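User: what does the whole thing look like in 3D?
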Amino acid sequence: MDADRVDGSSVEDMASAIAEGRYQAIGEILEAAVVRGERRWTYTDIFDHVFLSRSLGIPIFLTLLWAVFAFTFALSEPLMIIIEEVFGALGGIAGAGISNPQVASFVAGGVFGGLGSVLVFVPPIFLLFFALSILEDSGYMARAAFVMDRLMQSLGLHGRSFIPMMVGFGCSVPAIMAARSIEGEKDRLITTLVIPLISCGARLPVYILIAGAIFGARYAGTAIFSIYLLGVALAIIMALIFRRTLLKGEPSPFILELPAYAVPRAKTTVLHMWARGKWFLIRAGTIIFGTVVIVWFLAAHPWEATAGGEVIENSYIAIIGHGLEPLVRPFGWDWMAAVALLFGLLAKEVVVGTYGILLGVEEGALGESLVALGLFTPLTGFAFMAFVLIYVPCIATIATIFRETNSYRWAAFATAYLIILAFVVSGLIIAIGGLLGFS
Amino acid sequence: MTDYSIKTGKGLGIYASALGAISLVVGLVEISGGWGEIIPGDLFGGFVLLVIAATYLNGVKGVFQGRYEGLSFLVGGLFLTAVFGVLYLLMMGAEGLMYLLGEAEALPGIFDLRPEVWILLLSLPLARRVGRLTDGMAGSRY
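Assistant: Here's the predicted 3D structure for the full assembly of 581 residues, as structure tokens:
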């Protein structure tokens, strides 16, 4: 390597020069050792010529991402109905077969109404991870990072941030941990702060419930895709704001090896899907179940005043909800939304479980009830989805930010900015939507 | 120097232009609200077709010159056509399952096929021809 080139340069320049020298040496060795076939082009060259194209690379990435969500939503719908019917039948059996009214209320309302309404989202979560695993195993995901790097560099961001952000579509916690691979401290911190804006799988049940209810099966996939795009757009905007204000500096260079394309193997893809999706089942049996029990208790007590959970307006949870209602009333949401969002701080799936308990209906009728009771219009429902996207993903994410930054200040800052941003963006959606004539 | 004959390239180019033009028109109709029952209005579906059209049309000049640079866009276009054609077929299958579960009024029929599926069928002859040209090609360079 040319010593003069390294001398006097920044750490980033040196890293770039070392990598360049390393690849030059590899190229020379391969040139001398490998005998090329007659054909100059390979399948990898063919696909890279298109997928990495300057003009088509990003549009193709967006179309494939849309395909992932359309696939997830459309195919999971009948599977969800089957699970709903199973839980509905079990709830009915439990309600009729248990003599103790408190236990019967807990099993029917808390377990089957609350936890059951969360577990019906197993199919979309697993299908989403299945589709993302196909993209990853085929070698396309690395291309997506490469394609987005051009856009991110042009915005003054770091290309490697995109990989943790993609991990964030699964869960924010491993995504924040994946940001460790980013060398520059400022780049790493910016990525850590914006990852919560990338919509994780835990938020998907909320979108499916609301979008399915207010936009119908035909447009629900598109509405959900819009929310995911909003998350990516906000992450880029916030990263840009942090780069220009709190964490000034130039992004460090991005070096990425592109693997050859491969036809994904069914077994590997299913294993990847399972590895990513099993956390949902684990959470369902731990934090979601625990929170749902608390919500059920608050919704069914005082037992006499609520007539065994039948008159929800007299419950402890209604008192909490009415106390919080002024915060969300400007967005057209009622006290139930306030309570759902409050408990959603523990785990986003609980938002759905809370509605399941508060409305006291079977899983299949939850969406219909939301619309029939006038709790959401298309505009207020979309704003609610945006709020769920933006405000703190869960307690575990904030704890991970604290652990990774080793600073309670950054964790507190992340919490505060996400909540403020959620109010601002949801307010803008309501205001702009209202001006455009949406109800 | 060409990678395959100009005559082959011209045939591929004309077919790809036609597929690109059809995708472009259908995509624009979908974006602008649809046309009766035949082409449903679908903003993102229309955007997808515009991207497919752009991919095909990007490769036309190159294939007329008999070059792999052009052929690669045809492969990309065919890949996207296949992805979305199969996706809409799967969605129809899901609708059929919904009918069996009593959640849909009617079983989807041939007239419910999305234009993307017809475009997939139209692309099959091109896929066959392109497949012959790329047959035996290595997966990667090393």
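In plain terms: The first strand of chain B starts at residue 34 and ends at 35. The radius of gyration of chain B is 17 Å.
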